[in-house]
Task: inverse folding
């Protein structure tokens, strides 16, 4: 009897789940049409390019529970949609908290950090796929990648969540996450992924978006600027020149170091792809802005 | 046999002994190395690929066109350069759309990627084109060393595209190392990354050093005399990084580091100072003494790492 009851509960539960799923799906398509009218990823990127700092300030304000001074059009619409359809999870939130969880400081302020559907960029998944990660949709969240990851063993970086967030379209959450840069691109995850997903490519694509949005470390911009200046990420120095001479090699290697016209070619390419703008390189001063 | 010799950055601009050893060794093996005049940074797969994949592929493709003009396959002895050039070559050969996009950019610099050459790794050329038998014949000073082989990440992986050896259980480097008379010692998590790649070293040195320390601990437990690598960036990480680990953790690691080309140089009787091993941050004398090579004059340690 007990088993029967459990079975019945399960079935009922499943049906409820189905309903919710349908609702959610409906809502997804609603959001999709709505945000298609309002957002294109390009315009979003342009917004960022113009002022990434403002963006950061805004999110900081949001963390403190303040409304940003000029809330963006893009985000308003889906918020309405979310309230309409996401009644189920809301109910869960209303449950009174136990005293135990109240006393857990780690949980304090978590509500403000909860990600909602409003933050979904419905175009992001496709954008990542179009950028060369056709395999993205195959992920079934088994976690093998994180289990293999040497970075995850010592940092808060969890590669499985990178894939999930790319799939879900949690673009802002993903690209503003510092831990995204903790991957050493060692391919241990990719070698073991049972779905053959090109995980490292997805990490790099996410980082490309992060870089465009202004989340690029100074040290990385410096490496970029060395290539603009010399053609080399690690340019020669006096000590190595002396060492090269000592062993009978030319002081300068036969690279862009020796051939200035070759360096010009490299610079032409870096200008054509707007890499100079990306890192904020000032051609006149040779410095980063 | 002739190859377009791609230098990259760290080897030629920090550890020229690796380049010197390679040039002499290849001459010894009747393989001609032609300079790729005007080549640039590959650019680094983790760092540049993370900034902008289009820029990364365009600069890499330009480097490949230099080899195409020379009509020779590319040889590199850096895992990072290999990763970048191999992947770009593979991508642009497979994907017409990408090729067109990149060629539009290259056209501004008066170049065109055609997809006519292959990108090869030095160690793989030694193994497949020269062969262990011929290499063993050239060894005049068999090395009495217990070695921790470090494969690095961008040599065999991603194995779906790079088909050199089983990426989870490789033997290629162990066999190459043992051809010099040295012994490859198994150690825990041997295939783990050194920690330098992906822009991690420049962005968060603490995380990088934590990786490196784990590797050094495991190598030390196995009781090795030296570390052998096939990537100047891993080389730098084990050399410069080892001193940084010692500083940060108060440890006392002192395991000599050799690139495979330097190891072969020693086994073929080159003088240690021609391999610039005297300029390494971690003193290599213990390894040289064990190989009963003359102790070398202790010159200033001048190789810096960035
Ligand atoms: S190993 Fe592959 S399928 Fe599993 S969670 Fe990671 S990316 Fe997804
Ligand atoms: S490539 Fe990056 S995400 Fe994958 S295992 Fe290595 S460090 Fe982790």
Result:
């Amino acid at each position: 009897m007990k088993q029967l009851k459990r079975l019945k509960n399960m079935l009922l539960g499943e049906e409820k789940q189905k309903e919710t799923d349908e609702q959610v799906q409906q809502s997804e398509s609603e959001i999709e049409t709505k945000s298609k009218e309002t957002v294109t990823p390009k315009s979003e990127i342009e917004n960022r390019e113009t002022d990434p700092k403002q963006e950061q300030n805004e999110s900081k304000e949001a963390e403190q529970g303040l409304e940003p001074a000029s809330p963006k059009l893009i985000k308003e619409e889906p918020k309405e949609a979310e309230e309409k359809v996401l009644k189920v999870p809301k109910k869960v939130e209303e449950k009174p908290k136990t005293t135990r969880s109240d006393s857990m400081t780690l949980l304090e302020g978590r509500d403000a950090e909860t990600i909602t559907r409003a933050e979904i960029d419905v175009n992001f998944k496709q954008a990542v796929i179009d950028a060369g990660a056709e395999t993205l949709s195959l992920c079934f969240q088994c976690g093998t990648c994180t289990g293999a990851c040497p970075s995850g063993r010592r940092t808060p970086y969890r590669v499985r969540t990178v894939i999930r967030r790319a799939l879900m379209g949690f673009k802002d959450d993903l690209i503003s996450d510092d831990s995204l840069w903790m991957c050493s691109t060692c391919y241990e995850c990719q070698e073991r992924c049972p779905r053959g997903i090109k995980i490292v490519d997805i990490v790099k694509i996410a980082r490309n978006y992060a870089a465009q949005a202004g989340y690029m470390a100074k040290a990385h911009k410096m490496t970029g600027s060395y290539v603009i200046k010399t053609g080399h990420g690690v340019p020669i120095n006096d000590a190595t020149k002396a060492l090269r001479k000592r062993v009978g090699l030319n002081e300068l290697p036969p690279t862009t170091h020796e051939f200035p016209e070759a360096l010009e070619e490299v610079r032409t390419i870096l200008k054509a792809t707007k890499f100079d703008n990306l890192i904020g390189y000032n051609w006149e001063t040779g410095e980063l802005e | 046999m002739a190859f377009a010799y791609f230098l990259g950055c760290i080897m030629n601009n920090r550890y020229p002994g690796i380049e010197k050893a390679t040039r002499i060794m290849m001459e010894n093996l009747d393989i001609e190395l032609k300079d790729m005049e005007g080549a640039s940074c590959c650019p680094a797969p983790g760092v540049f690929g993370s900034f902008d994949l289009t820029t990364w592929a365009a600069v890499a493709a330009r480097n490949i066109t230099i080899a195409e003009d020379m009509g020779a396959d590319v040889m590199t002895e850096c895992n990072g350069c290999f990763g970048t050039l191999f992947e770009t070559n593979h991508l642009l050969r497979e994907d017409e759309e990408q090729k067109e996009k990149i060629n539009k950019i290259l056209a501004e610099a008066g170049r065109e990627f055609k997809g006519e050459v292959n990108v090869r790794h030095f160690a793989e050329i030694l193994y497949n084109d020269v062969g262990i038998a011929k290499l063993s014949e050239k060894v005049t000073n068999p090395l009495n060393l217990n070695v921790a082989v470090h494969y690095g990440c961008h040599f065999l992986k991603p194995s779906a595209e790079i088909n050199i050896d089983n990426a989870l259980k490789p033997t290629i480097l162990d066999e190459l190392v043992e051809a010099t008379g040295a012994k490859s010692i198994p150690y825990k998590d041997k295939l783990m990354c050194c920690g330098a790649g992906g822009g991690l070293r420049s962005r968060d040195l603490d995380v990088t050093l934590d990786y490196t320390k784990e590797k050094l601990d495991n190598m030390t437990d196995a009781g090795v005399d030296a570390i052998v690598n096939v990537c100047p960036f891993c080389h730098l990480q084990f050399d410069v990084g080892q001193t940084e680990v010692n500083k940060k953790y108060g440890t006392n690691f002192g395991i000599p580091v050799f690139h495979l080309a330097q190891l072969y140089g020693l086994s073929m009787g080159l003088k240690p100072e021609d391999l610039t091993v005297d300029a390494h941050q971690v003193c290599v004398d213990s390894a040289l003494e064990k190989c009963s090579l003359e102790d070398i004059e202790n010159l200033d340690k001048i190789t810096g790492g960035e």
About this structure: The longest helix of chain A spans residues 2-38. Chain A touches chain B through 69 residues (CB under 8 Å). The pocket of iron/sulfur cluster (ligand 1) is lined by residues A 139-145, 160, 163, 193-195, 197, 199 (CB under 6 Å).
